[in-house]
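Q: what sequence does this backbone want?
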């Protein structure tokens, strides 16, 4: 028997058993190797956003936060020890009672972390938890997210889908563009729009409520990597990968990044980035008991994962979203805002077209404040970053139902449905 709500009315209805969101915050997302957070550690970014979560919920006793799940992809040892150290280091948390674990579903890791905490709350394992994500691609992207020490038989496997799990993400993007006829011109146009929307959001202050500043160090270096001057203390307050004023003419001059005749470039692909994000979740009845109902931003409804061919992993959202909407008895027209990760313009455009969302994209209902092409894609933090942008965006525009979705390396897609209150 399904425990999921069915139909828009049921999805919007309030229940004491709902998993509600009290805050959804993120650090700035900055360019790896060059940006403002290049010298920060991922667990440092995690600690910053965890502290901001406590600050945003001053009437919540931190001892009531029972578990923290952290999405992370590239960290040594799966990030579990560093993340636990960061939690214990963060002022306010009970170092003996609040527990922590990490989750790795590649690009969906922090959406998975939020889903896991929500499931713990739904099944009454806990009442209050945090779903978070962290990533420093500056520090941990040396192997380009491809395993170095792997069973040799897998690399030579007779099963193509096994070998393709370590295919370059850029090649999967080219596969999508070639197989589904996504032109270079259309990809560049999406990139221009992504930057324009993100630049508008910055100018209008639309990200201000979701971003928490990061106090960290910054060492300037020259093109050879040699230090220039002394290390500085800086406060990073804004995303720094957004290119205001980028044009089709400028993007057209960029060479293909992955194959000589390809269509994916550095300009129409997501940026390699650093950042962290976190969402505070609890059961609605718990929020009521604690007098925190006025703090509720919305609720987590459900998520779904779907598999696809590893060599075209980018189509994942086009499979996961219909699966989830079908499970919930929802239609496209029931959704007010869509956040679909722009890992590559090729796959983002394919998904929009396959989902029948071209009109919604043109009207600004899909990635209305830009996507990963402009904002960046810190792998383990992206899902929670998108949830933060979604929830604050819905609060600003007045929409009710939102969808977050992303493709996942090795051939998957994940989607989540959220409701604003």
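A:
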């Amino acid at each position: 028997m399904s425990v999921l709500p069915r139909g828009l009315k049921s999805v919007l209805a309030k229940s004491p058993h709902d998993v509600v969101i009290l805050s959804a915050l993120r650090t700035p997302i900055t360019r790896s190797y060059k940006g403002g957070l290049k010298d920060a550690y991922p667990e440092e970014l995690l600690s910053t956003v965890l502290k901001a979560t406590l600050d945003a919920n001053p009437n919540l006793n931190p001892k009531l936060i029972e578990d923290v799940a952290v999405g992370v992809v590239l960290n040594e040892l799966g990030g579990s020890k560093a993340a636990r150290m960061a939690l214990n280091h963060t002022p306010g948390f009970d170092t003996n009672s609040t527990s922590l674990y990490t989750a790795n579903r590649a690009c969906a890791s922090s959406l998975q972390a939020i889903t896991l905490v929500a499931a713990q709350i739904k099944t009454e394992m806990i009442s209050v938890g945090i779903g978070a994500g962290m990533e420093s691609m500056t520090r941990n992207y040396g192997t380009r997210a491809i395993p170095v020490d792997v069973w040799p038989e897998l690399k030579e496997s007779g099963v193509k889908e096994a070998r393709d799990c370590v295919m370059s993400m850029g090649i999967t993007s080219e596969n999508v563009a070639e197989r589904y006829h996504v032109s270079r011109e259309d990809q560049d146009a999406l990139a221009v729009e992504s930057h324009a929307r993100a630049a508008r959001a910055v100018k209008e202050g639309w990200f201000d409520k979701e971003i928490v500043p990061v106090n960290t160090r910054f060492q300037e270096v020259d093109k050879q990597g040699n230090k220039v001057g002394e290390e500085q203390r800086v406060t990073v307050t804004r995303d720094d990968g957004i290119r205001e004023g980028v044009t089709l003419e400028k993007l057209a001059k960029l060479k293909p990044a992955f194959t000589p005749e390809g269509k994916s470039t550095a300009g129409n692909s997501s940026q390699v980035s650093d950042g962290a994000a976190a969402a505070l979740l609890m059961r609605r009845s718990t929020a009521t008991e604690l007098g925190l109902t006025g703090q509720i931003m919305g609720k987590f409804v459900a998520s779904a994962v779907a598999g696809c061919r590893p060599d075209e992993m980018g189509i994942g959202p086009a499979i996961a979203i219909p699966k989830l909407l079908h499970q919930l008895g929802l239609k496209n027209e029931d959704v007010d805002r869509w956040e679909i990760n722009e890992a590559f313009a090729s796959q983002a455009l394919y998904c929009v077209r396959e989902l029948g969302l071209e009109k919604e994209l043109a009207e600004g209902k899909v990635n209305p404040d830009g996507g990963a092409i402009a904002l960046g894609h810190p792998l383990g933090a992206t899902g929670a970053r998108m949830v933060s942008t979604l929830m604050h965006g819905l609060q600003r525009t007045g929409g009710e139902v939102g969808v977050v979705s992303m493709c996942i390396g090795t051939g998957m897609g994940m989607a989540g449905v959220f409701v604003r209150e």
